[in-house]
Amino acid sequence: MTDTPSTGNPIEGPGKGKVFFDRARTVAATGNFDYAINLYIDGLNREPANMVEHQALRETAFRRKVAGGKAASGLLGPKPPYKGKSSKDALLNAEWILAKDVGNRAAMMTIARNAALLDLPELVVWIGIMARENNRTDKNQKLDIYIELADIFEKIGEFNEASKCIQAAIGLKPNDMELHSRAKDLAAQETLKKGKYEKGEDFKESIKDKEVTKQLLEEENLNRSEEYRLKTLQQAKIDYEKNTKEVQVISKYAKALKDMDDEEHENTAIEMLTKAYAETKVYRFKVELGDIRIKQFKRNLRMLKEAVQADPKDAETLKQYQQLHRELLLFELGEYRERAENFPTDMAIRYEYGARLFETRHYDEAIAALQEAQNSPKHRVEALHYLGRAFMAQKMVPEALDTFKRSIDEYDLAPTGDRKSRELHYWYGVALQENGSIPEAIDVFSKIVRWDISYKDARKRLNDLRAGAAAPPAPPAGT
Fold this sequence. Notes:
- The chain is mainly α.
- The chain is 71% helix and 0% strand.
- The chain contains 22 helices and no strands.
- Helix 6 (121-136) packs antiparallel against helix 7, helix 11 runs antiparallel to helix 12 (247-259) and helix 21 packs across helix 22.
- It starts with 17 loop residues before the first helix and ends in a 13-residue tail after the last helix.
Protein backbone atom coordinates (compact mmCIF):
# COMPACT_ATOMS: atom_id res chain seq x y z
CA MET A 1 0.00 0.00 0.00
CA THR A 2 1.44 3.36 -0.95
CA ASP A 3 1.86 6.00 1.68
CA THR A 4 0.08 8.69 -0.33
CA PRO A 5 -0.59 12.11 1.13
CA SER A 6 -4.03 12.45 2.59
CA THR A 7 -6.41 14.06 0.15
CA GLY A 8 -8.15 15.56 3.16
CA ASN A 9 -5.12 17.66 4.03
CA PRO A 10 -6.43 21.24 3.87
CA ILE A 11 -3.04 22.78 3.05
CA GLU A 12 -2.29 20.50 0.11
CA GLY A 13 -3.44 20.87 -3.48
CA PRO A 14 -2.62 22.40 -6.87
CA GLY A 15 -1.71 26.07 -6.56
CA LYS A 16 -1.53 26.05 -2.77
CA GLY A 17 2.24 26.42 -2.77
CA LYS A 18 2.32 29.27 -5.26
CA VAL A 19 2.73 32.08 -2.73
CA PHE A 20 5.74 30.25 -1.24
CA PHE A 21 7.31 29.56 -4.65
CA ASP A 22 6.87 33.16 -5.79
CA ARG A 23 8.38 34.45 -2.58
CA ALA A 24 11.25 31.94 -2.84
CA ARG A 25 12.21 33.27 -6.27
CA THR A 26 12.10 36.85 -5.06
CA VAL A 27 14.25 36.05 -2.02
CA ALA A 28 16.73 33.98 -4.07
CA ALA A 29 17.21 36.95 -6.40
CA THR A 30 18.57 38.91 -3.41
CA GLY A 31 21.10 36.16 -2.62
CA ASN A 32 19.31 34.93 0.51
CA PHE A 33 19.43 31.31 -0.66
CA ASP A 34 18.90 29.61 2.71
CA TYR A 35 15.61 31.41 3.26
CA ALA A 36 14.60 30.71 -0.35
CA ILE A 37 15.25 26.99 0.17
CA ASN A 38 13.01 26.98 3.25
CA LEU A 39 10.26 28.68 1.24
CA TYR A 40 10.56 26.14 -1.58
CA ILE A 41 10.27 23.31 0.94
CA ASP A 42 7.16 24.95 2.44
CA GLY A 43 5.68 25.19 -1.04
CA LEU A 44 6.51 21.56 -1.87
CA ASN A 45 4.83 20.50 1.37
CA ARG A 46 1.67 21.81 -0.28
CA GLU A 47 2.47 20.67 -3.84
CA PRO A 48 4.81 17.65 -3.63
CA ALA A 49 4.08 16.65 -7.24
CA ASN A 50 5.11 20.03 -8.71
CA MET A 51 8.19 19.07 -10.73
CA VAL A 52 8.82 22.61 -11.98
CA GLU A 53 9.41 23.75 -8.41
CA HIS A 54 11.51 20.72 -7.46
CA GLN A 55 13.76 21.72 -10.36
CA ALA A 56 13.68 25.40 -9.39
CA LEU A 57 14.79 24.43 -5.88
CA ARG A 58 17.67 22.45 -7.38
CA GLU A 59 18.75 25.46 -9.43
CA THR A 60 18.67 27.64 -6.30
CA ALA A 61 20.74 25.04 -4.45
CA PHE A 62 23.45 25.22 -7.12
CA ARG A 63 23.43 29.00 -7.03
CA ARG A 64 23.91 28.81 -3.27
CA LYS A 65 26.84 26.41 -3.73
CA VAL A 66 28.49 28.63 -6.34
CA ALA A 67 28.12 31.55 -3.90
CA GLY A 68 30.06 29.56 -1.28
CA GLY A 69 27.18 27.96 0.64
CA LYS A 70 28.20 25.10 2.93
CA ALA A 71 26.38 21.88 3.80
CA ALA A 72 23.95 22.07 6.72
CA SER A 73 25.58 21.05 9.99
CA GLY A 74 25.14 21.14 13.73
CA LEU A 75 26.38 19.57 16.95
CA LEU A 76 24.04 16.62 16.45
CA GLY A 77 23.91 16.88 12.70
CA PRO A 78 21.71 19.04 10.43
CA LYS A 79 18.25 19.99 11.69
CA PRO A 80 15.75 19.60 8.84
CA PRO A 81 12.39 21.38 9.04
CA TYR A 82 9.94 18.51 9.70
CA LYS A 83 9.77 16.29 12.79
CA GLY A 84 7.09 13.87 11.60
CA LYS A 85 7.74 10.31 10.48
CA SER A 86 5.54 10.23 7.39
CA SER A 87 6.97 9.54 3.95
CA LYS A 88 6.29 13.11 2.92
CA ASP A 89 8.17 14.51 5.92
CA ALA A 90 11.10 12.21 5.16
CA LEU A 91 11.08 13.29 1.51
CA LEU A 92 10.98 17.01 2.31
CA ASN A 93 13.68 16.74 4.98
CA ALA A 94 15.94 14.89 2.53
CA GLU A 95 15.30 17.49 -0.18
CA TRP A 96 16.18 20.24 2.29
CA ILE A 97 19.47 18.47 3.11
CA LEU A 98 20.18 17.96 -0.61
CA ALA A 99 19.59 21.65 -1.28
CA LYS A 100 22.30 22.46 1.27
CA ASP A 101 24.63 19.72 -0.01
CA VAL A 102 23.97 19.25 -3.74
CA GLY A 103 25.94 16.01 -4.11
CA ASN A 104 24.49 14.23 -1.05
CA ARG A 105 23.71 10.79 -2.47
CA ALA A 106 22.08 9.54 0.75
CA ALA A 107 19.55 12.39 0.54
CA MET A 108 18.89 11.58 -3.14
CA MET A 109 18.16 7.96 -2.23
CA THR A 110 15.83 8.98 0.61
CA ILE A 111 13.89 11.20 -1.79
CA ALA A 112 13.67 8.38 -4.34
CA ARG A 113 12.42 5.83 -1.78
CA ASN A 114 9.77 8.10 -0.37
CA ALA A 115 8.67 9.51 -3.72
CA ALA A 116 7.93 5.92 -4.77
CA LEU A 117 5.90 5.37 -1.58
CA LEU A 118 4.01 8.60 -2.24
CA ASP A 119 3.24 7.58 -5.85
CA LEU A 120 5.18 10.46 -7.39
CA PRO A 121 6.68 8.73 -10.46
CA GLU A 122 8.03 11.88 -12.17
CA LEU A 123 9.95 12.79 -9.04
CA VAL A 124 11.24 9.21 -8.73
CA VAL A 125 12.62 9.26 -12.28
CA TRP A 126 14.15 12.73 -11.91
CA ILE A 127 15.91 12.08 -8.60
CA GLY A 128 16.65 8.43 -9.42
CA ILE A 129 18.58 9.33 -12.58
CA MET A 130 20.40 12.01 -10.61
CA ALA A 131 21.39 9.48 -7.92
CA ARG A 132 22.51 6.95 -10.52
CA GLU A 133 24.68 9.55 -12.27
CA ASN A 134 26.09 10.68 -8.93
CA ASN A 135 27.06 7.09 -8.13
CA ARG A 136 28.50 6.49 -11.60
CA THR A 137 30.80 9.54 -11.40
CA ASP A 138 32.05 8.68 -7.92
CA LYS A 139 35.49 7.10 -7.71
CA ASN A 140 34.04 4.50 -5.32
CA GLN A 141 30.80 3.40 -6.99
CA LYS A 142 28.49 1.41 -4.72
CA LEU A 143 26.82 -1.71 -6.07
CA ASP A 144 23.96 -1.55 -3.57
CA ILE A 145 22.97 1.92 -4.85
CA TYR A 146 22.46 0.57 -8.36
CA ILE A 147 20.52 -2.44 -7.05
CA GLU A 148 18.20 -0.35 -4.89
CA LEU A 149 17.58 2.17 -7.66
CA ALA A 150 16.73 -0.70 -10.00
CA ASP A 151 14.21 -1.96 -7.40
CA ILE A 152 12.64 1.49 -7.09
CA PHE A 153 12.42 2.04 -10.87
CA GLU A 154 10.97 -1.43 -11.39
CA LYS A 155 8.35 -0.79 -8.72
CA ILE A 156 6.95 2.17 -10.67
CA GLY A 157 7.14 0.41 -14.03
CA GLU A 158 10.23 2.25 -15.33
CA PHE A 159 11.88 -0.92 -16.61
CA ASN A 160 14.25 0.84 -19.00
CA GLU A 161 15.71 3.00 -16.19
CA ALA A 162 15.89 -0.07 -13.95
CA SER A 163 17.78 -1.88 -16.70
CA LYS A 164 20.32 0.96 -16.92
CA CYS A 165 20.97 0.57 -13.19
CA ILE A 166 21.51 -3.17 -13.54
CA GLN A 167 23.84 -2.64 -16.49
CA ALA A 168 25.87 -0.26 -14.33
CA ALA A 169 25.92 -2.91 -11.60
CA ILE A 170 27.15 -5.48 -14.12
CA GLY A 171 30.00 -3.11 -14.90
CA LEU A 172 31.09 -3.54 -11.27
CA LYS A 173 30.40 -7.31 -11.11
CA PRO A 174 30.63 -8.60 -14.68
CA ASN A 175 30.60 -12.26 -13.62
CA ASP A 176 27.45 -12.05 -11.49
CA MET A 177 24.98 -14.31 -13.32
CA GLU A 178 22.05 -13.11 -11.19
CA LEU A 179 22.58 -9.56 -12.46
CA HIS A 180 22.71 -10.78 -16.06
CA SER A 181 19.52 -12.75 -15.51
CA ARG A 182 17.78 -9.72 -14.03
CA ALA A 183 18.89 -7.57 -16.96
CA LYS A 184 17.17 -10.03 -19.32
CA ASP A 185 14.00 -10.00 -17.19
CA LEU A 186 13.87 -6.19 -17.21
CA ALA A 187 14.41 -6.10 -20.98
CA ALA A 188 11.51 -8.53 -21.39
CA GLN A 189 9.27 -6.41 -19.16
CA GLU A 190 10.15 -3.28 -21.16
CA THR A 191 9.28 -5.13 -24.38
CA LEU A 192 5.91 -6.20 -22.94
CA LYS A 193 5.25 -2.65 -21.76
CA LYS A 194 5.96 -1.26 -25.23
CA GLY A 195 3.84 -3.95 -26.83
CA LYS A 196 0.86 -3.07 -24.68
CA TYR A 197 1.30 0.62 -25.48
CA GLU A 198 1.43 -0.05 -29.21
CA LYS A 199 -1.69 -2.22 -29.02
CA GLY A 200 -3.48 0.47 -27.08
CA GLU A 201 -4.06 -1.59 -23.94
CA ASP A 202 -2.49 1.08 -21.75
CA PHE A 203 -3.31 4.14 -23.77
CA LYS A 204 -5.87 4.43 -26.52
CA GLU A 205 -8.41 1.95 -25.13
CA SER A 206 -8.31 3.69 -21.78
CA ILE A 207 -9.41 6.96 -23.35
CA LYS A 208 -13.08 6.96 -24.24
CA ASP A 209 -13.47 10.57 -25.19
CA LYS A 210 -12.56 10.87 -28.89
CA GLU A 211 -11.82 14.58 -28.61
CA VAL A 212 -9.31 13.96 -25.80
CA THR A 213 -7.72 11.21 -27.89
CA LYS A 214 -7.46 13.55 -30.88
CA GLN A 215 -5.85 16.25 -28.75
CA LEU A 216 -3.28 13.85 -27.31
CA LEU A 217 -2.38 12.53 -30.74
CA GLU A 218 -2.01 16.09 -32.01
CA GLU A 219 0.36 16.92 -29.18
CA GLU A 220 2.48 13.85 -29.91
CA ASN A 221 2.67 14.50 -33.63
CA LEU A 222 6.15 15.80 -34.43
CA ASN A 223 4.97 17.25 -37.73
CA ARG A 224 2.45 19.64 -36.26
CA SER A 225 0.40 21.68 -38.65
CA GLU A 226 0.86 25.45 -38.70
CA GLU A 227 -2.77 25.78 -37.65
CA TYR A 228 -2.15 23.70 -34.54
CA ARG A 229 1.03 25.63 -33.67
CA LEU A 230 -0.78 28.95 -34.04
CA LYS A 231 -3.62 27.77 -31.82
CA THR A 232 -1.12 26.62 -29.18
CA LEU A 233 0.73 29.94 -29.39
CA GLN A 234 -2.44 32.00 -29.01
CA GLN A 235 -3.48 30.10 -25.89
CA ALA A 236 0.03 30.27 -24.41
CA LYS A 237 0.12 34.03 -25.00
CA ILE A 238 -3.26 34.50 -23.29
CA ASP A 239 -2.04 32.48 -20.28
CA TYR A 240 1.20 34.46 -20.16
CA GLU A 241 -0.51 37.85 -20.29
CA LYS A 242 -2.65 36.79 -17.31
CA ASN A 243 0.40 35.83 -15.27
CA THR A 244 3.80 37.03 -16.51
CA LYS A 245 5.73 35.62 -13.54
CA GLU A 246 4.56 32.00 -13.38
CA VAL A 247 7.51 29.76 -14.29
CA GLN A 248 5.50 27.08 -16.05
CA VAL A 249 3.48 29.62 -18.02
CA ILE A 250 6.63 31.44 -19.16
CA SER A 251 8.26 28.21 -20.33
CA LYS A 252 5.12 27.13 -22.18
CA TYR A 253 4.87 30.48 -23.99
CA ALA A 254 8.58 30.40 -24.89
CA LYS A 255 8.22 26.90 -26.31
CA ALA A 256 5.17 27.88 -28.36
CA LEU A 257 7.08 30.85 -29.80
CA LYS A 258 10.12 28.68 -30.55
CA ASP A 259 7.96 26.02 -32.24
CA MET A 260 6.90 28.57 -34.86
CA ASP A 261 10.45 28.17 -36.18
CA ASP A 262 10.97 31.66 -37.52
CA GLU A 263 13.17 34.52 -36.38
CA GLU A 264 10.35 36.95 -35.62
CA HIS A 265 8.71 34.67 -33.04
CA GLU A 266 12.11 33.60 -31.69
CA ASN A 267 13.05 37.25 -31.11
CA THR A 268 9.81 37.72 -29.18
CA ALA A 269 10.78 34.70 -27.08
CA ILE A 270 14.24 36.19 -26.49
CA GLU A 271 12.75 39.47 -25.25
CA MET A 272 10.26 37.67 -23.02
CA LEU A 273 12.86 35.28 -21.54
CA THR A 274 15.35 38.11 -20.98
CA LYS A 275 12.70 39.95 -18.96
CA ALA A 276 11.69 36.77 -17.10
CA TYR A 277 15.28 35.95 -16.15
CA ALA A 278 15.95 39.50 -14.97
CA GLU A 279 12.87 39.38 -12.74
CA THR A 280 12.99 35.80 -11.42
CA LYS A 281 16.64 34.73 -11.71
CA VAL A 282 15.40 31.25 -12.67
CA TYR A 283 18.42 29.99 -14.56
CA ARG A 284 16.37 27.74 -16.83
CA PHE A 285 15.16 30.88 -18.65
CA LYS A 286 18.78 31.82 -19.36
CA VAL A 287 19.34 28.34 -20.80
CA GLU A 288 16.24 28.58 -23.01
CA LEU A 289 17.40 32.00 -24.16
CA GLY A 290 20.79 30.62 -25.13
CA ASP A 291 19.24 27.65 -26.96
CA ILE A 292 17.21 30.00 -29.15
CA ARG A 293 20.28 32.09 -29.97
CA ILE A 294 22.19 28.92 -30.92
CA LYS A 295 19.28 27.81 -33.11
CA GLN A 296 19.37 31.15 -34.93
CA PHE A 297 23.14 30.96 -35.40
CA LYS A 298 22.83 27.48 -36.91
CA ARG A 299 20.00 28.48 -39.23
CA ASN A 300 22.04 31.37 -40.64
CA LEU A 301 25.10 29.16 -40.87
CA ARG A 302 23.17 26.59 -42.93
CA MET A 303 22.04 29.31 -45.32
CA LEU A 304 25.61 30.54 -45.81
CA LYS A 305 26.88 27.00 -46.26
CA GLU A 306 24.32 26.37 -49.00
CA ALA A 307 25.40 29.61 -50.69
CA VAL A 308 29.07 28.55 -50.54
CA GLN A 309 28.23 25.15 -52.01
CA ALA A 310 26.23 26.81 -54.79
CA ASP A 311 29.15 29.12 -55.66
CA PRO A 312 32.48 27.89 -54.20
CA LYS A 313 34.35 30.78 -55.84
CA ASP A 314 32.44 33.42 -53.89
CA ALA A 315 35.23 34.44 -51.47
CA GLU A 316 33.12 36.99 -49.61
CA THR A 317 30.38 34.49 -48.76
CA LEU A 318 32.97 31.94 -47.66
CA LYS A 319 34.53 34.56 -45.39
CA GLN A 320 31.11 35.34 -43.88
CA TYR A 321 30.49 31.62 -43.31
CA GLN A 322 33.83 31.16 -41.56
CA GLN A 323 33.30 34.25 -39.41
CA LEU A 324 29.82 33.19 -38.35
CA HIS A 325 31.10 29.70 -37.55
CA ARG A 326 33.72 31.21 -35.24
CA GLU A 327 31.08 33.41 -33.58
CA LEU A 328 28.83 30.40 -32.99
CA LEU A 329 31.66 28.42 -31.41
CA LEU A 330 32.58 31.29 -29.09
CA PHE A 331 28.95 31.84 -28.13
CA GLU A 332 28.43 28.14 -27.39
CA LEU A 333 31.67 28.03 -25.42
CA GLY A 334 30.45 30.85 -23.18
CA GLU A 335 27.00 29.29 -22.82
CA TYR A 336 28.23 25.84 -21.86
CA ARG A 337 30.91 27.23 -19.55
CA GLU A 338 28.21 29.04 -17.59
CA ARG A 339 25.90 26.03 -17.62
CA ALA A 340 28.69 23.79 -16.37
CA GLU A 341 29.25 26.21 -13.47
CA ASN A 342 25.54 26.19 -12.62
CA PHE A 343 25.10 22.42 -13.05
CA PRO A 344 28.48 20.95 -12.04
CA THR A 345 27.19 17.37 -11.75
CA ASP A 346 25.43 17.30 -15.13
CA MET A 347 27.82 15.30 -17.28
CA ALA A 348 25.83 15.92 -20.48
CA ILE A 349 26.53 19.65 -20.10
CA ARG A 350 30.13 18.87 -19.19
CA TYR A 351 30.44 16.97 -22.48
CA GLU A 352 29.05 19.88 -24.52
CA TYR A 353 31.45 22.24 -22.76
CA GLY A 354 34.41 19.92 -23.36
CA ALA A 355 33.53 19.57 -27.05
CA ARG A 356 33.46 23.36 -27.48
CA LEU A 357 36.76 23.70 -25.63
CA PHE A 358 38.26 21.22 -28.09
CA GLU A 359 36.77 22.97 -31.13
CA THR A 360 38.22 26.29 -29.94
CA ARG A 361 41.60 24.60 -29.28
CA HIS A 362 41.65 25.01 -25.50
CA TYR A 363 43.06 21.49 -25.30
CA ASP A 364 44.17 21.27 -21.66
CA GLU A 365 40.83 22.53 -20.43
CA ALA A 366 39.06 20.24 -22.90
CA ILE A 367 40.92 17.22 -21.55
CA ALA A 368 39.89 18.02 -17.99
CA ALA A 369 36.23 18.52 -18.94
CA LEU A 370 36.04 15.45 -21.18
CA GLN A 371 37.66 13.23 -18.57
CA GLU A 372 34.65 14.00 -16.40
CA ALA A 373 32.16 13.84 -19.28
CA GLN A 374 33.17 10.30 -20.23
CA ASN A 375 31.10 9.20 -17.22
CA SER A 376 27.92 10.31 -19.03
CA PRO A 377 26.28 7.15 -20.45
CA LYS A 378 24.66 9.14 -23.25
CA HIS A 379 27.87 10.84 -24.39
CA ARG A 380 30.56 8.37 -23.31
CA VAL A 381 31.66 7.38 -26.83
CA GLU A 382 31.75 10.96 -28.15
CA ALA A 383 33.52 12.22 -25.01
CA LEU A 384 36.22 9.54 -25.35
CA HIS A 385 36.63 10.38 -29.04
CA TYR A 386 37.09 14.11 -28.39
CA LEU A 387 39.37 13.29 -25.46
CA GLY A 388 41.57 11.16 -27.72
CA ARG A 389 41.77 13.92 -30.28
CA ALA A 390 42.70 16.45 -27.59
CA PHE A 391 45.52 14.14 -26.50
CA MET A 392 46.64 13.92 -30.15
CA ALA A 393 46.65 17.70 -30.45
CA GLN A 394 48.93 17.82 -27.40
CA LYS A 395 51.26 15.17 -28.92
CA MET A 396 50.28 12.71 -26.16
CA VAL A 397 50.07 9.80 -28.59
CA PRO A 398 50.05 6.79 -26.19
CA GLU A 399 47.25 8.40 -24.18
CA ALA A 400 45.34 9.14 -27.38
CA LEU A 401 45.82 5.58 -28.61
CA ASP A 402 44.36 4.05 -25.47
CA THR A 403 41.45 6.52 -25.45
CA PHE A 404 40.53 5.93 -29.11
CA LYS A 405 40.58 2.17 -28.48
CA ARG A 406 38.18 2.62 -25.56
CA SER A 407 35.83 4.76 -27.68
CA ILE A 408 35.58 1.91 -30.21
CA ASP A 409 35.07 -0.70 -27.48
CA GLU A 410 32.27 1.37 -25.97
CA TYR A 411 30.41 1.86 -29.27
CA ASP A 412 27.89 -0.93 -29.83
CA LEU A 413 27.77 -0.39 -33.62
CA ALA A 414 31.54 -0.21 -34.07
CA PRO A 415 31.66 -3.38 -36.24
CA THR A 416 29.01 -2.06 -38.66
CA GLY A 417 31.08 0.60 -40.42
CA ASP A 418 28.46 3.31 -39.95
CA ARG A 419 29.49 6.97 -40.06
CA LYS A 420 30.44 7.18 -36.39
CA SER A 421 32.32 3.88 -36.57
CA ARG A 422 34.38 5.09 -39.55
CA GLU A 423 35.29 8.28 -37.66
CA LEU A 424 36.32 6.37 -34.53
CA HIS A 425 38.43 3.90 -36.49
CA TYR A 426 40.03 6.59 -38.64
CA TRP A 427 41.46 8.45 -35.66
CA TYR A 428 42.49 5.18 -34.01
CA GLY A 429 44.40 4.39 -37.22
CA VAL A 430 46.05 7.82 -37.21
CA ALA A 431 47.14 7.33 -33.59
CA LEU A 432 48.54 3.87 -34.39
CA GLN A 433 50.45 5.38 -37.31
CA GLU A 434 51.83 8.21 -35.15
CA ASN A 435 52.81 5.63 -32.54
CA GLY A 436 54.76 3.59 -35.10
CA SER A 437 52.39 0.62 -34.84
CA ILE A 438 52.36 0.16 -38.61
CA PRO A 439 50.87 -3.37 -39.02
CA GLU A 440 47.99 -2.45 -36.70
CA ALA A 441 47.44 0.85 -38.53
CA ILE A 442 47.34 -1.01 -41.87
CA ASP A 443 44.65 -3.33 -40.49
CA VAL A 444 42.52 -0.38 -39.32
CA PHE A 445 42.79 1.63 -42.56
CA SER A 446 42.12 -1.53 -44.57
CA LYS A 447 38.91 -2.01 -42.62
CA ILE A 448 37.84 1.59 -43.27
CA VAL A 449 38.55 1.27 -47.00
CA ARG A 450 36.48 -1.90 -47.14
CA TRP A 451 33.61 0.07 -45.60
CA ASP A 452 34.08 3.24 -47.66
CA ILE A 453 36.98 3.63 -50.07
CA SER A 454 36.49 7.39 -50.32
CA TYR A 455 36.51 8.08 -46.56
CA LYS A 456 38.85 11.01 -45.87
CA ASP A 457 42.43 10.06 -46.81
CA ALA A 458 42.19 6.51 -45.47
CA ARG A 459 43.00 4.95 -48.89
CA LYS A 460 46.11 7.12 -49.35
CA ARG A 461 47.32 6.35 -45.84
CA LEU A 462 46.79 2.62 -46.44
CA ASN A 463 48.71 2.70 -49.72
CA ASP A 464 51.54 4.78 -48.24
CA LEU A 465 51.87 2.46 -45.25
CA ARG A 466 52.01 -0.62 -47.45
CA ALA A 467 54.62 1.07 -49.65
CA GLY A 468 56.70 1.93 -46.60
CA ALA A 469 56.34 5.65 -47.16
CA ALA A 470 56.97 8.08 -44.33
CA ALA A 471 53.98 8.64 -42.14
CA PRO A 472 52.10 11.83 -43.02
CA PRO A 473 51.33 14.22 -40.19
CA ALA A 474 48.07 13.78 -38.29
CA PRO A 475 45.24 15.91 -39.69
CA PRO A 476 44.60 19.22 -37.95
CA ALA A 477 42.67 18.78 -34.72
CA GLY A 478 39.49 20.39 -36.02
CA THR A 479 39.12 18.20 -39.12
